[in-house]
Structures are given as structure tokens and as C-alpha cells.
Design brief:
By secondary structure, the protein is of the alpha+beta class. The protein folds into two domains: 1-36; 39-181, SCP2 sterol-binding domain (Nonspecific Lipid-transfer Protein, Chain A, 2-Layer Sandwich), CATH 3.30.1050.10. Helices cover 54% and strands 16% of the residues. The chain contains eight helices and five strands, in the order H-H-H-H-E-E-E-E-H-H-E-H-H. The protein has a five-stranded mixed beta sheet. Strand 1 and strand 2 form a beta hairpin. Helix 3 crosses helix 5 and helix 4 (70-79) crosses helix 5. The relative contact order is 0.13.
């Protein structure tokens, strides 16, 4: 009798261990996707990065502030690596950012690593970035300045969505980078 019980328990243990192993693999895959997205999306982002040029590069600070438009916002978002954002693994809600740059409001949607910028507010934004045109141009002219801008409070990020939703779209790496440096 005890041998039969041991054999049954051994079979149950093997089955439970196998199920736990499969669940662990799925969990690791899900966490990897949350943090990094899939390689295909990263390749798309790499191609997009090569095509984006800094509109403030050959301008003085004053000229860039005067000409500030959607192209500047696009490069600003590029500077904080918004191209790494993605749809959640089990959803279709794309990343949405609203930017308040002085009196102007812009919005961005990130689809397959491509940042689409328009003027105006957006419904159900994930985060709101607030800054001035001068700060935005300074960030664009010096990629290391983003740290100083957010640390000093001259630029700010407000989280609108819940943390689980933000993590599932990849905001965690952007927020952590800025938060650590804040």
C-alpha cells in the first residue's frame, strides 16, 4: 500500500513540477516583453532612429524656440526614448503621451516604435510631460541635459494611467531612468 501511494505522489509531483516550469517560462517571457518588447519592434525602432534628425541642431536657442513645432516635440520624445514604448502583451491600447509646452498642447501616439505627434489634447493619456520651449530645446541640443531638466523641476512627468498599465506598455524604463536621475 505505501508503495502505491509513493508512486502516485511521485507522478503528481512530476506533473506539478512540469506545470510550474511552463508557468515560469511564460512569466519570464511576459516580464521580458514588458521591459524590452520583442526584437522585431526594436528593429523597427532602430530604423526609425536613423531617420529622425534634430530640428534644433543648426539653430540658436532663440531661433529654435521661435520655430518650435511638432517636429521639435517628435525629437524631444525621441530624446527620452519614447520609441521603446509598445502595446501591452494582452491588449491593444497604444501608448499615449500628452505634452504641455508652455501654452501649446501636443499629443503623441506610439505605434510599432513610430512616434506620431499632433497638436491638441488626447483622451486617456498615459503620462503628461510639462516643460517650456526653452527646456525642450536645451534637451534636444544636449542629450545629457534631460537629467538636469527633470532634476531641477523645470520639466515634469505626471503619471495618468495606473502603474501596471504603464509597465505593460514599457514606460517603466523611461520613468525609472528619469526618476533615478531626479
Amino acid at each position: 500500500m505505501p508503495k502505491e501511494i509513493i508512486k502516485r505522489n511521485k507522478k503528481r509531483f512530476i506533473i506539478i513540477a512540469f506545470i510550474l516550469f511552463i508557468l515560469a517560462l511564460i512569466g519570464i517571457g511576459f516580464i521580458y516583453y514588458l521591459l524590452f518588447g520583442f526584437e522585431e519592434k526594436n528593429n523597427i525602432s532602430n530604423n526609425i532612429r536613423r531617420q529622425i534628425t534634430n530640428p534644433a541642431k543648426s539653430l540658436s536657442l532663440e531661433e529654435a524656440i521661435k520655430l518650435f513645432d511638432e517636429d521639435f516635440v517628435l525629437y524631444l520624445l525621441f530624446s527620452i526614448k519614447a520609441y521603446n514604448l509598445h502595446e501591452p502583451l494582452f491588449g491593444s491600447d497604444i501608448p499615449k503621451i500628452e505634452l504641455h509646452i508652455e501654452e501649446d498642447i501636443y499629443n503623441a501616439r506610439i505605434i510599432d516604435g513610430k512616434i506620431n505627434v499632433e497638436r491638441g489634447e488626447i483622451d486617456e493619456e498615459d503620462i503628461i510631460i510639462t516643460t517650456s520651449k526653452e527646456e525642450a530645446v536645451k534637451i534636444m541640443l544636449d542629450k545629457d541635459y534631460v537629467v538636469d531638466s527633470f532634476r531641477s523641476g523645470l520639466s515634469n512627468i505626471e503619471l495618468s494611467a495606473n502603474k501596471l498599465e504603464l509597465a505593460s506598455k514599457g514606460y517603466l524604463s523611461i520613468y525609472e531612468e528619469l526618476k533615478e536621475k531626479n
